[in-house]
Amino acid sequence: MSIHAVSMSTYTPRDVPLPRAPSANYFSELQWKTLYALADAIVPSIHTAATAKSSNDRVVSDAEWNSTVSSLSMIISGPDAVNIATQYLQENVSSNPQFRAIVERLMGDYVHDEGRNGFGLIMTALNTRTGSLIMTGSTTPIQDQPVEFREKVLHGWDTSRLPPLRAIYRGLTAIVKKCWVISSPTIGPVLGFPRVPVHGRPADGFQYEFLQFPPGDQPETIETDVVIVGSGCGGSVTAKNLAEAGHRVLVVEKSYSYASNTFPMGPNEGFLSLFESAGAVSSDDGSMAILAGSTWGGGGTINWSASLQTQGYVRQQWADTGLPFFTSLDFQKSLDRVCDRMGVNEEHVEHNRQNRVILEGARKLGYAAKTVPQNTGHGEHYCGYCTFGCASGGKKGPTESFLVDAAQAGARFMEGFCVEKVLFTQINGRKVASGVQGTWKSRDSYLGLGGVAAVERNVIIKAKKVIVSAGTLQSPLLLLRSGLKNPQIGRNLYLHPVMGASAVFDEETRPWEGSALTTVVNEFEDLDGDGHGVKIESVSMMPPLFLPMFPWRDSLEYKLWAAKMRRSTSFITLTKDRDSGRVYPDPVDGRCRVSYAVSAFDRKHIVEALIASAKIAYITGAREFHTVYRDIPPFIRPEASDPEGPEGINDAALQSWIAELRRKSPLNPERCLFASAHQMGTCRMSKSPKLGVVDPDCQVWGTDGLYVVDASVFPSASGVNPMVTNMAIADWASRNLARAMGTGRGEGRMARL
């Protein structure tokens, strides 16, 4: 029976408890009042003069109200469309307790001190006569002004000559948009977006067992052969290979495991439980939003199943840096081996509407394009919700493949264990890794619950080999906390920066249905003759991932545009970046900070991909084409134009829009939001310690017994979705390590000392 024949309409995911919310006293009551007054200007309650109740309501004329409700009702359709449209327009964000709770948690737990203090300073200044006059043109506090006035102030900040005001505009609009989409009770009915996918069926996942510790004041000590820090793509493959070779393996993960019956999580629970810093990591300048997995299975739990092997020209580039392994048959065998284990295939791929748009548009334009293989165990997997966890188990990421194999081979697991440092001993003047030390929090302790189950312990793990697989953002920070001084640690950060775009059609597309990313356009992957360029793909169309990317220009316009998502398809411009950045620890609390700006060189390539995406949208009949760049208005197809007309993409209106975009190339990075779901390179593999962090065997230069196996070892950007490359490097390195360690002697399970 096809999986499509079984509906998930009767399935309700189990609720996921959230950790205790932080205190909101980092802002005063007046600062919060000011911040929420600005939030009400970004996503205001829309009314006519007859229904407006306060200065927080944006008033429109009766004619504009009727026109807006009519437009929304046509999008929503159905007998209750007018009522749904009215509730949507009149929704007030600041009166929604969930919106407030999400904002307060985000600001309290995930915005670094420097950013939070900046917000607080501006909110305070707005409540002084001088500060208010400078920033708003009036001495009246902004929260006492009509919402229309506040909106004009925000527009002024957007183009202000004062960098702090521009930064506050970018940060505040980003936070409010995201928190509104997550918490809104009306946007789901407007979009027709269901809580769970309508295709597929839930399935029970593998039942993992995790080490538990009793309360105690003294450190708990464990002895094992190999400790692996991180359960993601690299760590899971390494665990399987070393456990199957007979070694005692302990995989530790700072985050927690969730049963498949909690998937797909709702957006609030999903961001908090599955993503690094609740999906709120950004570059220091605010121009780059960074999504990385932080859960059992790492990025393999939240990614979109794309399983592309490393391309030949990239392998050759890496080999030319003194790493011949990448052009060897051994590397190809590792690529094939990990793909075989996950059941990577094209045969069972069924393209949803947005992926069909890309394929058909590319065909009509003569662009090189192909189907993206999926890690679906040679089965059907028509689901676009897996970025918040796969309920069906159809996506064969680490938790459904390599970690299962590791468990069956005797590996042990710890969740909730934050490794503070790698331990070393000195032998003949060499630093030899001897284990790790950190803090373990039981699940109840993490959730802030009481009782005997709420335990927090200092744990020391003694091991013969230490494998760091904490991801590109965290692995270099662990090396730095452990006292390593190589100046290359944390540098050479590549992010595959993307800009988003959206095509709007006359008919409903329901873009969240079906696999998120099953096509790729390769036509523009080499724009400089040296392998740097852009691929065009689609994005997961979960509303809280998709809608906040796009610019806020006007409060009513943003609500109207958001409603069009049910008629939209997406494009992303995945860039093989030439120029890099770095990660480093925050000087106050040590959390990951990212210094990265998309270079003019790479931004020019992105413009070419945006133009190609607009042509694809046009030739497939899209009515509108939107980008995340604030200074270029959307392309609106003239009523008289015909996508099947003889001129095709030579249409004068389209060419005029393209010419305007080219004039703005390479695009001002302050005027858009880039995003990254791929992080690479911060512990770069190299032929010498002057050029990188790990040697060709993935062992950290200047140490013995310490290895890094994750995407941080990539010599440069991979140019394709990095999961398979990451796994193949881990497969090769761990097999070599297993041979070097010899066959496990069967000394039994790890010891608690």
From TrEMBL:
Long-chain fatty alcohol oxidase involved in the omega-oxidation pathway of lipid degradation. It catalyses: a long-chain primary fatty alcohol + O2 = a long-chain fatty aldehyde + H2O2. The active site is at 678 (proton acceptor). Belongs to the GMC oxidoreductase family. Residues 225-262 form the FAD-dependent oxidoreductase 2 FAD-binding domain. This is Long-chain-alcohol oxidase. Its EC number is 1.1.3.20. PANTHER family: LONG-CHAIN-ALCOHOL OXIDASE. Residues 569-730 form the Glucose-methanol-choline oxidoreductase C-terminal domain. It comes from Penicillium nordicum. Residues 273-498 form the Glucose-methanol-choline oxidoreductase N-terminal domain. It comes from the Eukaryota. One of its GO terms (cellular component) is cytoplasm. Keywords: Cytoplasm, FAD, Flavoprotein, Membrane, Oxidoreductase, Transmembrane, Transmembrane helix. It is found in: Cell envelope; Cytoplasm; Membrane. GO terms for molecular function: flavin adenine dinucleotide binding; long-chain-alcohol oxidase activity.
